[in-house]
From TrEMBL, chain A:
It comes from Maritimibacter fusiformis. One of its GO terms (biological process) is glutaminyl-tRNAGln biosynthesis via transamidation. Belongs to the GatB/GatE family. GatB subfamily. Its EC number is 6.3.5.-. GO terms for molecular function: asparaginyl-tRNA synthase (glutamine-hydrolyzing) activity; ATP binding; glutaminyl-tRNA synthase (glutamine-hydrolyzing) activity; transferase activity. SMART domains: GatB_Yqey (SM00845). Residues 357-502 form the Asn/Gln amidotransferase domain. This is Aspartyl/glutamyl-tRNA(Asn/Gln) amidotransferase subunit B. InterPro entries: Asn/Gln-tRNA_amidoTrfase_suB/E (IPR017959), Asn/Gln-tRNA_Trfase_suB/E_cat (IPR006075), Asn/Gln_amidotransferase (IPR018027), Asn/Gln_tRNA_amidoTrase-B-like (IPR003789), GatB (IPR004413), GatB_C_1 (IPR042114), GatB_Yqey_C_2 (IPR023168), Gln-tRNA_amidoTrfase_suB_CS (IPR017958).
From TrEMBL, chain B:
This is Glutamyl-tRNA(Gln) amidotransferase subunit A. Belongs to the amidase family. GatA subfamily. PANTHER family: GLUTAMYL-TRNA(GLN) AMIDOTRANSFERASE SUBUNIT A (PTHR11895:SF151), TRANSAMIDASE (PTHR11895). It comes from the Bacteria. The gene is gatA.
């Protein structure tokens, strides 16, 4: 089976400055909350939306003498993610402390993996349209603790801290600077989210902050990036700025676009871009300096003495690899090659793992193309109208498959099928039962159709004359017969019989 | 029985087993002794109600014939151990008012073994100090005296040492990061043992330097150290650095037979300016072990001279990070803020008020050695030195050495306040014979071996192979028997 479909590389985004053309170079750090019931180093729950400070173990609150103990499941999830990104798994990794003071960081340090991350180099293929994709290299993935939440707007004189999130496991997924435009950046996050959701290692919920990205943006002149690629020497690239904490695809694009133009304006003015951390303000659509390199924290990283190095077995990694689900690229390729779908349709159906599973169940009836048309056009359209998604879909894939089967067997026409779908969708009733009970079965009995045709011909002698002169008018007779049979007559049979009876 | 507080653990255990006394009587004797020993300033949080309840429970267990190893033995607990519902301040103002909702694994193990907690013992603030003069509770006074001056009991487990030496309790818990059990034990004429790193759980012990900290017993005899260590030790899934290996019966190993054992005498421990009587005591220890049938060989631990500087980089580095949590946000002391003060002022004022000068010094040293541009020159280099020191020990153990004999301290107890104006490094030199053991993660024990010319106790240190505390304790037992140290401080308090 194909790993992924063949693709060509897209052209980098080019921005025309006042004086010359510029290209963008973007690297991303995606922070993905590990899907796990317990935190990285404590048994406290990770449930979202709990009362403030209710999911807090002693170690999360950094009580004196409390010690972290690694949650094996979080390690497994990181390994699974690494394997899903075709990355090297490091059998030896270690935890370091990143020291800084903030009230929502009770320990005064975040336990992270600076020197020896658990996952090394991998890659993501970022789809930019049928046959076009960007290969983005992953540099590393490390496990780290999330911080808590500071609340500054509840009281004019006080700030509050909620430690529910403190110590929740995050994967920081760091890319190489291989992303070449705002759309690619958004598509990268879309693809990353898709893969993580397929793997079940992160729920991808961006609204809750379970998936967020820091975006590193720089600009260079055409040709410089190729020189960087040849040499891997960053000196060919421009100075980068990091835009922190982005949690919407739209904002990512807008922020990069703004930031690139800001940097271009500085450079064309003869100035220099200052390496710094910036924040994006969606209300004003601009990025603002958060802290410069000089003001940057000195995190004083050092190996966390409370934790032994993390040593895992190759056999364990192999077992996780064997349990990996089919991933989006492979699934899409299979949908194209096995079901004969277009790459576009296959892309739509595999975008969401739940939808892909749904479609595969529907397609079990044997006609993948027909199933794809119905799922994409009828079902997705109907869900969108109701503002639902596939997880709250009221019609089961089995019932959806039943509708396809009824069409294929000729029991119902495509037109009737839409009515059956609507009833099944709103009532939950089984399509076969609906067709039976509501008398929607197509009439294929030629005797009954002949009788109906005879009646229409007998009642409309004038029309018969006209039709004989102009065969295009037979359609009128077909329509009359369909009306008379309540639309249940097999249209193909009606056409043939009308033509025969009219002697055409 | 009179003077029950003067019993050893083993004596008390046997007396209890024979029904000659009760845990309540033992406890009352200790509570009485504590009451009369305010001048020593050893006990800083008294828990007589808890002690009496536990003693009654112990007596019930004894009566029921279900008496574990430490049943009914009254102990003092160093303030560094978190004890549920009882103030646990690590000798610091910054933990003012802090009463944990949890019990440290080591103290819980002792309670499970039937021990009775009399109260919390004074210590140097956050275990940083060698004289017990950095405590928020004030200095601890050594029960040993040679003139009118008050002497230091050593540190950081100075309260524990003073309390055991003055018979305020039968034994006490200590912790040892660079010598904090062994040095005060030597200064007060008691036995102090630091087990192999990972033998005792660190869970619930306020952290100073996590890769060096280890709890251990401070007792009147080597046998008591063996009994108490067995009760304290054991694998704890809550501490990732605690070792998942069985705890042997240390007491059963005390045969006193050390014939054929190889004892190494490291030449690098002969320091310039070391008092003659320390040198003489060391030679005496060597002779005693030889007389007991051990083979004595001269060995070399070539990187010893780098141990103290490496220790004073690594320990403060870890401490600067471990102590970051004391920020006034969640517990302990928080400074009063002025109008307009923000979070930065809250941190600065809280930590300036909450930490004493020695803790501040070490936090600053630690922050400095970890900072960008200095990390390799200090912290990383110190880690490499540490690896070399460990290799020195590995090599001599590979040569067949069973234990290493050294002096425990470069001097006897000095006067309180004597070092007040001195360079802090002079105080740090107290740890010169002990820090190597922590850096290498080895077990070490200080055994009282004699008196100096003025009549103050001196200790010898034995360093054992990793995880072979039983063997080391047996050598210490033989040394103790040969030294026959029975002196007690004359009661003046």
């Amino acid at each position: 089976m194909l790993d992924h479909l063949a693709f060509e590389t897209p052209k980098p985004t080019r921005i025309a400055g006042a004086k010359e053309d510029w290209e963008l170079v973007i690297g991303m750090e995606v922070h993905a909350q590990v899907a796990s019931n317990a935190k990285l180093f404590s048994g406290a729950s990770t449930a979202f939306g709990a009362e403030p400070n209710s999911n807090v173990a002693f170690v999360d609150a950094a009580m004196p003498g409390m010690l972290p103990v690694i949650n094996e499941f979080c390690v497994e999830q990181a390994v699974r993610t690494g394997l899903g990104l075709k990355a090297r798994i490091n059998l030896f990794s270690a935890f370091d402390r990143k020291n800084y003071f903030y009230p929502d960081l009770p320990q005064g340090y975040q336990i992270s993996q600076l020197y020896h991350p658990i996952v090394g180099e991998g890659e993501v293929i970022v789809d930019m349209g049928p046959g076009v994709a960007r290969r983005v290299r992953i540099e590393r993935i490390h496990l780290e603790q999330d911080a808590g939440k500071s609340v500054h707007d509840m009281d004019p004189n006080m700030s509050f801290v909620d430690l529910n999130r403190t110590g929740v496991a995050l994967m920081e997924i760091v890319s190489r600077p291989d992303i070449r435009g705002p759309e690619e950046a958004a598509a990268y996050v879309v693809k990353m989210r898709q893969i993580l959701r397929y793997l079940g290692t992160c729920d991808g919920n961006m609204q809750n902050g379970n998936l967020r990205a820091d975006v590193n943006v720089s600009v260079c002149r055409p040709g410089d990036y190729e020189r960087y690629q040849e040499t891997q020497d960053f000196a060919h690239l421009g100075t980068r700025c990091e835009i922190k904490n982005m949690n919407s695809m739209r904002f990512i694009q807008a922020a990069i676009d703004y930031e690139a133009r800001r940097q271009i304006a500085i450079l064309e003015d003869g100035g220099e871009v200052v390496q710094e951390t910036r924040l994006y303000d969606p209300d004003k659509n601009e990025t603002r300096s958060m802290r410069s390199k000089e003001e940057a924290h000195d995190y004083r990283y050092f190996p966390c003495p409370d934790l032994l190095p993390l040593e895992i077995e190759q056999d364990w990694v192999d077992a996780i690899e064997a349990s990996l689900p089919e991933l989006p690229d492979a699934k899409k390729a299979r949908f194209v090659t096995v079901f004969g779908l277009s790459e576009y349709d296959a892309g739509v159906l595999t975008a969401d793992v739940e939808a892909a599973h749904y479609f595969e169940k529907v397609a079990e009836v044997g006609d993948g193309k027909l199933a794809a048309n119905w799922v994409i056009n009828e079902l997705f359209g109907r869900l969108k109208k109701d503002d639902r998604d596939i997880t709250t879909c009221p019609i089961s894939p089995e019932h959806m498959g039943e509708i396809i089967a009824l069409i294929k067997s000729g029991d119902i026409s495509g037109k009737i099928a839409k009515d059956v779908f609507e009833i099944a969708y709103t009532s939950g009733r089984a399509p076969a039962e609906i067709v039976e009970t509501e008398g929607m079965k197509q009439v294929t009995d030629t005797g009954a159709i002949e009788a109906a045709v005879d009646a229409v011909i007998a009642d409309n002698p004038a029309q018969v004359e006209k039709a004989r002169a102009n065969p295009k008018l037979t359609g009128w007779f077909v329509g009359q017969v369909m009306r008379a049979t309540g639309g249940k007559a097999n249209p193909k049979a009606v056409n043939e019989i009308v033509a025969a009876k009219l002697g055409l | 029985m009179g003077d029950l507080n003067k019993l050893t653990i083993a004596e008390a255990r046997d007396a209890l087993a024979r029904g000659e006394t009760t845990a309540v009587e033992l406890t009352e004797a200790c509570l009485g002794a504590i009451e009369g020993a305010g001048k020593l300033n050893a006990f800083v949080h008294h828990t007589p109600e808890i002690a009496r309840d536990q003693a009654r429970a112990a007596d019930a267990r004894l009566k029921a014939g279900d008496a574990p190893a430490m049943c009914g033995i009254p102990l003092g607990i160093k303030d560094l151990f978190c004890t549920k519902g009882v103030a646990s301040q690590a000798g610091s103002r910054i933990l003012e008012g802090f009463k944990p909702e949890y019990e440290s694994t080591v103290s819980q193990n002792l309670l499970d073994a039937g021990a009775v907690m009399l109260g919390k013992l004074n210590m140097d603030e956050f275990a940083m100090g060698s004289s017990n003069e950095t405590s928020v509770y004030g200095d601890v006074v050594n029960p040993w005296k040679i003139d009118e001056r008050d002497l230091t009991p050593g540190g950081s487990s100075g309260g524990s040492a003073s309390a055991v030496a003055a018979d305020l309790c039968l034994a006490a818990t200590g912790t040892d990061t660079g010598g904090s059990i062994r040095q005060p034990a030597a200064f007060t004429g008691i036995t102090g043992m630091k087990p192999t790193y990972g033998r005792c759980s660190r869970w619930g012990i306020v952290a100073f330097a996590s890769s060096l900290d280890q709890a251990g017993p401070m007792t009147k005899t080597v046998r008591d150290a063996a009994i108490m260590l067995a009760a304290m030790a054991g694998h704890d899934p809550k501490d990732s650095t605690s070792a998942d290996i069985p705890v042997p019966d240390f007491e059963a190993a005390l045969t006193g037979d050390i014939r054929g054992k190889v004892i190494g005498i490291p030449r690098e421990y002969r320091m310039d300016g070391m008092p003659d009587e320390i040198e003489a005591l060391w030679a005496e220890g060597r002779r005693m072990l030889e007389d007991a049938g051990a083979r004595i060989i001269d060995i070399s631990l070539p990187h010893t001279k780098y141990a103290l500087p490496a220790y004073y980089v690594i320990a403060p580095a870890e401490a600067s990070s471990n102590l970051a949590r004391y920020d006034g946000v969640r517990y302990g002391h928080r400074a009063k803020l002025a109008a307009g003060d923000g979070i930065t002022e809250m941190y600065e004022k809280t930590r300036a008020e909450g930490f004493g000068p020695e803790v501040q010094r070490r936090v600053m040293i630690g922050t400095y050695v970890l900072s960008a541009g200095f990390y390799d020159a200090y912290y990383n280099r110190a880690r490499k030195v540490r690896a070399l020191i460990k290799r020195d020990f590995d090599e001599v153990f590979d040569q067949g050495v069973d234990a290493i004999l050294t002096p425990a301290t470069p001097s006897a107890a000095f006067g309180l306040g004597e070092m007040a104006e001195a360079d802090p490094v002079r105080m740090y030199l107290n740890d010169v014979f002990t820090v190597t053991v922590n850096l290498a993660g080895l077990p070490g024990i200080s055994v009282p071996a004699g008196l100096d010319a003025k009549g103050l106790p001196l200790g010898l240190q034995l360093i054992g192979r990793p995880w072979e505390e039983a063997d080391m304790l047996n050598t210490a037992y033989a040394l103790e028997a040969a030294a026959g140290f029975v002196s007690k401080p004359a009661k003046w308090w």
